[in-house]
Structure formats: C-alpha cells, structure tokens
C-alpha cells in the first residue's frame, strides 16, 4: 500500500479485524518510511453492478457514493457513522441479492430513503430533497405531509 503522506509503497500491518459482518477485513497499516498510520479494507471482489442514471448513462455501482450521500444528509444530526455504514451495506446487499446486473439510480435512492426514514426523519427529508429534486416548497411540504400521515396511521 502506498502511504498517503509520503508516497512510499511499503507498509506493515499493525492490526487486522473483521468488518462489515465478516464481509471485509479492516487493516491498520503503518508506513515503514515516515510512520504514518492509515486504514485499508479488503473485500471480496464481486461481479460488476451497473447503475443506470436518470439521464440514461451507465456507471459502475460505487458504495462510497451511497455512503457519501448519507453522510451529507446526516450532517449535524445525531446519527452514528456506523448506522450509515450499515445502511450502505444493506443497500448494496439488497441490490446484489436481486441478481440484476443493471439497476436504476431511482431504485438505489428508494432503498436509501426507506432505510433513512426509520433512522432519522430530518436526514430523510434532506436526502429526499436532493434525490427527488424538489423544485419548490410545495413539493417539500407534500412529502412532509405524507410522512406525518404515515406516522399518524401507526
């Protein structure tokens, strides 16, 4: 592994642990030149999953993009990073379990919103406002009223 600080390509493993429910190994490494410590993850390489975006373009599924979107939606909210990791893992698991090689970005967004709704409603609204591309306050209010009516039914 190449050191992030000095670029040296020799490091030693200081600690290894299982991660992501035994689907990955988390390795703590130390650069042999400058002593900087960093973390790497080793995962099983899976068959490619292609995302079909709203404009019709295609790109490889990137779990980190899902996680980044979750982090942005949950900024300054009392949501643990481990919960966001769990959601990203669950979304990827569900997509891969569907046995489809192509999945729409709409489906990914729906899965994320479904998970966020049960975790933090403010983060859900933040994510939905970007994902659904609200054009005005009426669309936002409509979504929030739907949430309130669903909550009152329970």
Structural descriptors:
46% helix, single chain, three-stranded antiparallel beta sheet, alpha+beta, 154 residues, elongated, three-stranded mixed beta sheet
Q: What do you see in this structure?
A:
The chain has five helices and six strands. Helices cover 46% and strands 21% of the residues. Strands 1-2-3 form a three-stranded antiparallel β-sheet, with no helix packed on it. A three-stranded mixed β-sheet has the order 5-4-6. It has two domains: 1-44; 46-148. The chain has 154 residues and is of the alpha+beta class. A zinc finger (unnamed) spans 3-34.
Detail the topology: elements first, then pairings.
Elements: E1 11-19, E2 24-31, E3 37-43, E4 50-52, E5 58-60, H1 63-73, H2 81-97, E6 102-104, H3 105-119, H4 121-131, H5 137-153
Parallel strand pairs: 4-6
Antiparallel strand pairs: 1-2, 2-3, 4-5
Helix pairs in contact: 1-2, 1-4, 2-3, 3-4
**SSE order, as H and E?**
EEEEEHHEHHH
Nearest-angstrom radius of gyration? 19 Å
Q: What class would the helix/strand composition place it in?
A: alpha+beta
Strand order of the largest sheet: 1-2-3
User: Largest beta sheet, briefly?
Assistant: 3 strands, antiparallel
Task: Enumerate the spans where pLDDT stays under 50 for 5 or more consecutive residues.
Answer: none
What is the percent of helical residues?
40-55%
**Distance separating the two termini:** 51 Å
**What is the number of domains?**
2
User: What number is the mean pLDDT?
Assistant: 88
Morphology call: elongated
Please count the helical segments: 5
- What fraction strand? 15-25%
Total number of beta strands: 6
